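[Primary structure, fold]
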Amino acid sequence: MARLTPASLGYRMPAEWEPHEATWIAWPHERSDWPGKFAPIPWVYGEVVRYLSRVEKVRILVNASAEHAARRVLARAGANLDSVEFYHAPTNRSWTRDYCPIFVRNDAGQVAMTHWRFNGWAKYARHELDAAVPALLRRRLRMPCFRPMWSGRPVVLEGGSIDVNGQGALLTTRECLLSPVQARNPGMTREQIERMLADYLGAGQLVWLNNGIAGDDTHGHIDDLARFVHPATVVIASERDRKEANHSALKENARLLRSNLALTVVELPMPRPVYFAGQRLPASYANFYIANKLVLVPVFNDPADRTALNTLARLFPDREIAPVYCRDLVLGLGTLHCMTQQQPTGS
């Protein structure tokens, strides 16, 4: 008997701009992710929740012992605590984009989870608590759940490695999904990966870009590089300084996008390189998060902040464009999209 998949049952991954029931985040606690700069991080999360709690529910994974402190930060930050729900769940890190379930929805408005394996970006040994989150949420949410398997093994996929337009198209990179470096699914072919994305996310049209940005320790996540903002429009990070490390890779990715005649391509600038203690950090305006009536945009006290905000304001005329200072947050090697995962509205 053929294995039932979400696509065969009419499910697809909605675009991020489609209505949300909630946004999932995990309260930060791993100080080593922000060495020497952890103190401001809970307040960045408080600012993000302040914005989100005005327009949708915010569901927060938190260690039970940390809930009181989280509530205190959120109250002082001005968040609407009536729209905040806490779920006691131990985590290793706070990047819910990559280990929370990816939600799918069918035309009847039924929402289900897809539970992909998380292996710490094929790099970090301590990831077992994060990897257990989808199973925990399946028990709490009591919704259908699909587990992608290949050759008897769970398939690895992080939410930050893909972006969809909700109508069958998906953006990703060869560097992340196909490279033998930090290999997520050794032995799987491009065709087999494409079949999994079609079967479990309803994404039958893949747009493959090449390499991600400098400083990205995930080895090529798309959400620092290029994002759908409309079913036929993609924004892509652009670096005009020919001497900068990102220039050639971003130029090649823009060429690949423009070769797809079905897409309109809009450039987002890159901020000037951000370093801390000599380490290049993955600062990018493409790591924005689209919520109900709102787009949260990372900014870095950079001259290009205004250009990025104005570009996104033109592309999202019906949403508030809210800048969030992320020069501290990006030391953890992620910003706003990395720390969030959307749950679509159901019937």
